[in-house]
Amino acid sequence: MAQDVAVLIPARRASTRLPEKLLLAEHGEALIATAARQAAKAFGPEAVVVCADDQALIDAVGPTGMAARLTRLDHQSGTDRIAEVAAGLSASIIVNVQGDEPEMEPEHIRLVASLLLRHPWAGIATLGVRGGRAEQGNPNNVKVVLGHGDRALWFTRAPAVWDRDGGEPTTGCVRHLGIYAYRREVLLGYAGLPASRLEQTEKLEQLRALEAGIGMACGLVEHAVPGIDVRPDYDAFLSRLRK
Questions:
Q1: Number of structural domains, the chain?
Q2: pLDDT digits (tens, 9 = 90+) for 193-208
Q3: Mapping DSSP to helix (H, G, I), strand (E, B) and coil, where does residue 94 land?
Q4: Using an 8 Å Cβ cutoff, are 237 and 22 in contact?
């Protein structure tokens, strides 16, 4: 499978909550370089391409020896950014790994890619982790409702699912994790789809795929990988490295 998988990392220099986030280097190298090195543990460094909107990010990846491509500035999402690069690749499976997740588990990358091999009906695959009452009540934690055979039925910010007899949401849920694998042809077509009504309402891009009839598979993992959104997240990352 490794020869048929590309791991693409969309990288946008602008960051509102943590300026210059992907260029933070207090741990010894730029964060985007660390994310690329970690992603390379899944299928090898030759599978990884950083898709960046700024030359500074390209330069930061240089010491890793991994590929980096400068993309257009007008992309509205990371999906659009990796689609531009994927159009020039031959890999049939494209995994989207976030540049602000420098501790992404290689096993998670391999798992999300393998879901597309396991399920011919799926055009997109993703991952989830079991959560409890706190995740149910937090609209920033996106919930995914699963059917049989790893099929993702629905994504929502609302509590899901609802226990009618109990008169409240179920205690447990599955929290969606933001890693995706795409069949190349689905990714290239998906980037051209207009934003859907459901997507615009919930502000969840994955609903565009479901509304368009694209099958989505979702695998479960035991834990979520911490991402870096604000300064305390980066400080926690530094602390974990020291330990």
A1: 2
A2: 888 899 999 999 999 9
A3: strand
A4: no
